[in-house]
Amino acid sequence: MKSRENNQTSLRKFLKFFKNGFYDQKYLNWERNYKWNAHEAWEKELNEKEFRKLLRAKNYQEIAKRAVRMESRTNLLFSFEKMALRDAVKSDKGAEIFAKGLFNYIYGKEPLEERFENFSKALAQLPRKQTRVLTWPLQTVFGFIANPAEHIFLKPRVTQLAAENYNYNFEYSSKPNWKTYKSLLDFAKKIKRDFPSLKPRDYIDLQSFIWVQGSSEYD
Question: Where exactly are the structural domains of the chain?
C-alpha cells in the first residue's frame, strides 16, 4: 500500500509541473527537446556507417571531437565532467581508446551487459589529468544520446532520491557497474508499467520522470 501511495505521489508531482505528462509543451521545452535534438545530431554525425568509416580511417580525434561537441549541446554533464573528458581524449591514445570503446558500446552486437562492462574498462584506461573519467554520468551519457531506446542516463544523487521517494529499492554503488545500471533500467521499466497512460516514448521520458522526482529544480 505504501509503495502505491508513493507512486501516486510521484505521479502527482510530475503532473503538477507538466499537466499533460510527456506530451505537455512545457515538458517538451524544458526536458525532452534538447535531449532529442542531441540524439538527432548523433544520428547525423556519428551513425553506425559514419562512425565505422571514421574508425577505418583511424580518425579517432574526429570521433572524440564530434562526441564531445554533441554532448556539449546538453546540460547533462557538470562542467568538471566535460573538462575531464576533453582532457582524457586530447592525446591520440586517449582518443583511440575512447572511440573504439564507444563504438562497441553503442553499435556492438554483444549483450548490453557485456558492452556496458567493456565500456567501463575503456573509460578506466583513459588518461586522467585531475578528475576521474569513470563516473556514472560519463559512463551513461553517450549511450543515452545515441540510442535512448536502449540506454538511460544516470545522475547518482537525483536518482537515489527519486528511488527513495518512489519506494523503489535502487541497488546503487558509486563505481559504474552492471548491477546498478540494470537496477536503474528496471526502475524505469517499473515506472512505465505503473503509469501506462503517460505513454513514454523512450528512456528520455523515463529519465525525465526520475529527474523531476529527485532534482532540487523541482522542489
Answer: 2-36+152-218, 44-133
